């Protein structure tokens, strides 16, 4: 769609009609992820044309311009492919930085436990903080950045029940490797699982027997929200709300933002 002017126009025009017909405040694009420089260039062109069309429609309709945002990779540098930061900054009202899913799938024989959404990761550049700093250093205004954290965790089977910290060996996934926060809290209660908060990386995990789950609990979420305030970011988001447990994460994030 983004590679041709005609298909970009079709997408943009239909998206604006959709938003106006349904009384939306704006539109958010989720392209996971432009994989090469050509796709990144097309992404930038799409955003520029979208912003121009939104501004034109606002003038003709007399309505406030639609808000435009995008879900983007945790860093402006997507594994060697650079985002079109100037076009993103000029065209969007904000970006939703997906600072999670840092522990990727690997063969069971080499899979290790790890913080799935570490705010800090000493010695590496794969963390929420490293990504946010990369965006800001690439001239993305901090007040257009929204940091995200997960309302779910990654569940693994420990190779050795007595080795249960971060970077322990595993023998495979549990429940296809994903559990919502509500499921995690139920697992902890039903199995009297041990809970651990790691303040160095800002991440949580729990374990019972050989079942291990890495996730964000309330302390990780509140720390990340305070980080967003300290860095003068626009805000935060959680993906996704239906996974919360009686709004525990959402309420804690709100308290931390308002504190």
Structural commentary:
It is a single chain. This protein is an alpha/beta fold and 259 residues long. The protein has helices at residues 5-21, 37-61, 85-91, 128-137, 181-191, 218-230, 248-258, and strands at residues 26-30, 67-72, 77-78, 81-82, 94-97, 145-150, 152-158, 170-173, 179-180, 194-198, 203-208, 211-215, 235-239. Strand 5, helix 4 (128-137) and strand 6 (145-150) form a beta-alpha-beta unit. Helix 1 packs across helix 2, helix 2 runs parallel beside helix 3 and helix 6 (218-230) packs parallel to helix 7 (248-258). 34% of the residues are buried.
Features of the shown structure:
five-stranded parallel β-sheet; 2 domains; elongated; 259 residues; alpha/beta; Chitinase A, domain 3; 36% helix; six-stranded antiparallel β-sheet; TIM Barrel
The oligomeric state of the chains shown is single chain
N-end to C-end Cα span: 44 Å
What's the order of the H and E elements?
Answer: HEHEEEHEHEEEEHEEEHEH
CATH architecture of the largest domain: Alpha-Beta Barrel
> How many H/I helices?
7
* Mean pLDDT over all positions: 95
């Amino acid at each position: 769609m983004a590679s041709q002017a005609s298909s970009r126009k079709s997408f943009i025009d239909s998206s604006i009609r959709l938003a106006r017909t349904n009384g939306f405040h704006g539109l958010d694009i989720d392209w996971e992820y432009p994989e090469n420089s050509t796709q990144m260039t097309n992404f930038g062109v799409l955003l520029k044309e979208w912003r121009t069309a939104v501004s034109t429609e606002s003038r003709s309709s007399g309505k406030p311009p639609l808000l435009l945002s995008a879900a983007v990779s945790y860093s402006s540098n997507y594994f060697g492919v650079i985002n079109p930061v100037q076009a993103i900054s000029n065209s969007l009202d904000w970006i939703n930085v997906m600072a999670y899913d840092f522990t990727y799938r690997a063969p069971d024989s080499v899979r290790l436990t790890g913080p799935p959404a570490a705010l800090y990761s000493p010695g590496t550049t794969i963390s929420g903080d490293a990504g946010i700093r990369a965006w800001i250093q690439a001239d993305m205004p901090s007040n257009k950045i929204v940091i995200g954290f997960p309302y779910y965790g990654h569940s693994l089977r420990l190779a050795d029940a007595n080795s249960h910290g971060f970077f322990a060996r595993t023998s495979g996934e549990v429940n296809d490797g994903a559990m919502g926060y509500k499921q995690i809290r139920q697992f902890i209660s039903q199995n009297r699982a041990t809970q651990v908060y790691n303040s160095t990386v800002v991440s949580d995990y729990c374990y019972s027997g050989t079942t291990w789950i890495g996730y964000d609990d309330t302390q990780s979420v509140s720390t990340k929200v305070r980080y967003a305030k300290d860095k003068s970011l626009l805000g935060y988001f959680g993906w996704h709300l239906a996974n919360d447990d009686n709004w525990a994460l959402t309420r804690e994030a709100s308290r931390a933002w308002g504190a």
